[in-house]
Design a protein that fits this description.
With 288 residues, this protein is mainly α. The protein has 8 helices and 4 strands, in the order E-H-H-H-E-E-H-H-H-H-H-E.
Length: 288
């Protein structure tokens, strides 16, 4: 039976509490930190050698879809009523609206270290110590809006720019693509600030703190952000009559991307699953 992922701003008080409590329990069990380690491991840039699956590659969307499902399954083992809500950052753009409320993810960081001191994930609560990161910090940090060099969340118009592209992805299948839905949504650009960071990427930059880099999973907002990104893939498929993941076959030996990206029917590490298998998950969940 399919379940529903809701807009985080529409959750009832009970739904908010159950979502938060499930996250805290997954963290207490030690499972949450494994998700952080996985994302750090597969956060490979196109400037490095080897296979890229999580970022700067066509598999950005199916990889994170499976990643979200794994987290959601862990939450539902704690409480079967819980699903991962999504944050529509084209509408909920205030630093005090959902998801930044006391009963959800807490608010902005404070002081020179940008430590989050409100909500259930504040270090002082004793339930959310950062254990897996590229730094030694033990507390969650945020710098909403980037106080010293302000940036704005992406707009509906900027999201529409990505959704309107009828092609899933194009050569050279990396962060330099100027065409194709995947990179327009993932958001690697050129220039500075808003031009360099679009859609998905700019939201990570806007939140700041722990949401920067491979250890971004340490901030629970990662999941509600990526649920919204996952929803965009579903909406794009509907708009473009079920347009498919590309590439449909691996780049040949003469290509710079040979062995570096995942084609439609190839396995995405660390799972035994292909992008093709992740294209339709309507039998698992739907979006409200």
């Amino acid at each position: 039976m399919t379940y529903v992922r809701k807009d985080v701003s529409t959750l009832t008080g009970t739904e908010r509490r159950r979502f938060v409590n499930a996250l805290l329990e997954v963290k207490r069990r030690g499972e949450y930190d494994e998700f952080v380690r996985t994302h750090i491991t597969y956060y490979t840039s196109d400037g490095e050698h080897g296979l890229r699956t999580a970022h700067m590659a066509p598999s950005f969307l199916p990889w994170h879809r499976r990643f979200l499902l794994d987290l959601e399954r862990a939450l539902r083992r704690v409480d079967s009523s819980v699903t991962v809500p999504y944050w529509d950052w084209t509408r909920d753009r205030s630093m005090t609206s959902a998801p930044w409320t006391e009963d959800l993810l807490g608010g902005n960081g404070h002081g020179p270290d940008h430590q989050v001191i409100t909500g259930p994930f504040a270090h002082a609560q004793g339930n959310w110590t950062i254990k897996e990161s590229v730094t030694d910090g033990k507390f969650l940090t945020r710098d909403l809006g980037r106080s010293r060099a302000p940036i704005a969340l992406p707009t509906g118009t900027e999201l529409e720019w990505a959704l309107a592209d009828p092609v899933y992805d194009t050569s050279p299948w990396d962060s330099t693509c100027t065409k194709g839905f995947r990179n327009k949504l993932e958001g690697w650009g050129t220039g500075r600030d808003s031009a360099a960071w679009r859609n998905h990427n700019r939201v990570h930059r806007w939140v700041g703190g722990a949401m920067l880099g491979g250890a971004s999973v340490n901030d629970p907002v990662f999941w509600v952000h990526h649920a919204f990104i996952d929803l965009q893939w579903t909406l794009w498929q509907r708009r473009h009559n079920g347009a498919r993941y590309l590439p449909d076959s691996p780049p040949g030996p003469g290509s710079e991307q040979h062995g570096r990206i995942v084609a439609r029917h190839e396995k995405m590490p660390p799972w035994d699953v292909t992008p093709d298998e992740m294209e339709d998950v309507s039998w698992i969940y739907r979006y409200a």
